[in-house]
Amino acid sequence: MTGSELEADEAQPDGSGAELEAGRKLFAQRCDFVMAGVKPDDVPASDRPEIAFAGRSNVGKSSLVNALTGRKTLARASNTPGRTRQLIFFDLAGRLMLVDLPGYGYAKAPKQDVALWTGLTRAYLKGRPQLRRVLLLIDSRHGLKDSDREVMTALDKAAVSYQVVLTKADKPKPDELSRCAEATAAELAKHVAAHPAVAVTSAESGQGIAELRAELALLALPAAAG
């Protein structure tokens, strides 16, 4: 992705009812499992814009995908860290591809598995021109960790636009959540590929889900006429 594309990707929704409705309509449409890839050659050919979901193991990637699409079992959520070991692709209404990436930062996983997941993810991130944005999920109870910072630095170097999404916002106290969001935004300001807005979400309560849908709808292909 070029620098100009990164700049263009920083466009933000104005929070209008029309944009919220556009996001609702897009994510209410059919969303189908396409495939799960275990090596770089497995990823499907596609001309659709893609949004990838990245984050530490058990941060809530699958739960967020399910919340955005209004489905309970589209992406398999698990309390077992390190369960997602593939690139999992979902086609949203033929307008947007959602990609669930393997979790990182799970120290108890076998080193061979960690190396495989890391190589698979890096190959995807570097070789996917239609990738419009990576959503980097951060547990709002804990904030940024060193493993998250390593990913942010790698995305900066690869010129891949990314946005931090704080998850599980229903868990911390309001003042703790505010401090986490502020600290995260301040750190993101130092990263060239980071989207300036921090999304604060809860798959459990629905907080921030409509607003995130509106943002992602701006990156999708236009709806078919008629």
TrEMBL record:
Domain EngB-type G: 47-222
Keywords: Cell cycle, Cell division, GTP-binding, Magnesium, Metal-binding, Nucleotide-binding, Septation
Gene Ontology annotations of biological process type: division septum assembly
Cofactor(s) the record lists: Mg(2+)
PROSITE patterns the UniProt entry points to: G_ENGB
GO MF terms held by the record: GTP binding; metal ion binding
Organism superkingdom: Bacteria
GO cellular component terms, semicolon-separated: cytosol
Annotated function: Necessary for normal cell division and for the maintenance of normal septation.
NCBIfam families, per the entry: GTPase_YsxC (TIGR03598)
Family statement: Belongs to the TRAFAC class TrmE-Era-EngA-EngB-Septin-like GTPase superfamily. EngB GTPase family.
Protein's name in the database: Probable GTP-binding protein EngB
Biological source species: Tistlia consotensis USBA 355
